[in-house]
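From the methods appendix. Each design record in this collection lists the tokenized structure first, followed by the designed amino acid sequence. Records were kept in a plain field format so they could be parsed without special tools. The example shown here is representative of the layout used throughout.

RECORD:
FOLD TOKENS (328 positions):
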């Protein structure tokens, strides 16, 4: 029994010693270093409308701020387009107001007067017809005169009916369909006006974000097509580093891991950042990464976001990435 107890104690002591040895070994392992290149995004900027380039305000290497004016094309054609759209909108609104207001009071009063006049004429024609009937019964006039009086009476009555219908039409105003059509024309003219205003605004090319001009593709006087590149801009933010890690070290750089980065030009002044993305798929080490021991090995791509870039990092610049002491 004592022998078994002694054997268990010795096994436990051996396990503790082995754990301490491995811990000591791990604490002495070499710091993880990764190699990669700076990855700065860029954007090709152009006008959304065609036109003659009036001026280009920035040159290659110039720094620009978000919203800064970069170039302009001749705005005159689009100013005329906007003026035409304004006039069409004003005409549509005037017609809309007419449809909603209905006919003028003066037109209705005129129709009322015409109706009253036609009723007087109809009464007079009726009296004349009755006189002719009395004369015909006594033989005092011809049948032909009686027929003329009857026709004049019928014509006067029909004129009264026509004038009543005309007055009712004026008093009722425009149909609901006509009013709806007028409203639709105003909406259409308003949309055309907004489109023309947008075209005029698009004659100015502005920077979507801060950056540095890489390429000035067109000069004043050139005819720029819609969408053609006028200026290529390198964005200041975000600045990333594309690095690669071997599978055996993958667990040491999960997303959020803080790292320091140095370039060959300033090895004593590191930049700082953190791992923002770890590729879920393995790939072969790219030729641009100088890691001879991993040249033919499968690695995982990292995207490291640089927190304190000062503008000195350039696209494709090689960097060395090390884990920050705070992340160990």
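DESIGN:
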């Amino acid at each position: 029994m004592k022998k078994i107890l002694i054997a268990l104690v010795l096994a436990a002591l051996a396990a503790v010693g082995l754990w301490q040895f491995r811990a000591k070994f791990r604490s002495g392992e070499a710091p993880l270093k990764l190699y990669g290149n700076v990855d700065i995004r860029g954007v090709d900027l152009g006008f959304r409308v065609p036109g003659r380039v009036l001026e280009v305000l920035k040159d290659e290497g110039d720094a620009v701020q978000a919203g800064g004016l970069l170039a302009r094309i001749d705005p005159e054609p689009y100013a005329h387009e906007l003026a035409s759209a304004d006039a069409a909108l004003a005409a549509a609104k005037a017609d809309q107001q007419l449809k909603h207001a209905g006919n003028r009071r003066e037109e209705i009063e005129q129709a009322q007067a015409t109706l009253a006049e036609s009723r007087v004429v109809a009464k007079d024609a009726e009296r004349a017809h009755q006189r002719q009937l009395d004369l015909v019964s006594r033989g005092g006039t011809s049948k032909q005169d009686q027929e003329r009086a009857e026709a004049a009476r019928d014509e006067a009555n029909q004129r009264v009916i026509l004038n009543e219908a005309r007055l009712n039409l004026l008093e009722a105003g425009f149909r609901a369909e006509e009013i709806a059509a007028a409203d639709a024309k105003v909406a259409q003219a308003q949309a055309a006006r907004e489109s023309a205003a947008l075209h005029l605004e698009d004659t100015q090319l502005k920077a979507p974000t801060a950056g540095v001009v890489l390429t000035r593709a067109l000069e004043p006087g050139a005819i720029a097509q819609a969408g053609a590149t006028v200026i290529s801009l390198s964005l200041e933010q975000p600045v990333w580093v594309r690095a690669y890690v071997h599978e055996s070290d993958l667990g040491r750089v999960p997303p959020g891991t803080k790292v320091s980065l140095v370039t060959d030009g300033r090895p004593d002044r590191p930049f700082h950042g953190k791992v923002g993305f770890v590729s879920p798929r393995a790939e072969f080490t790219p030729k641009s990464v100088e890691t001879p021991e991993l040249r033919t090995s499968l690695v995982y791509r990292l995207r490291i976001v640089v927190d304190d870039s000062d503008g000195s990092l350039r696209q494709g610049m090689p960097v060395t990435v090390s884990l920050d002491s705070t992340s160990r």
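APPENDIX NOTE: The chain has three domains: 30-40+237-327, 43-75+203-232, 82-198.
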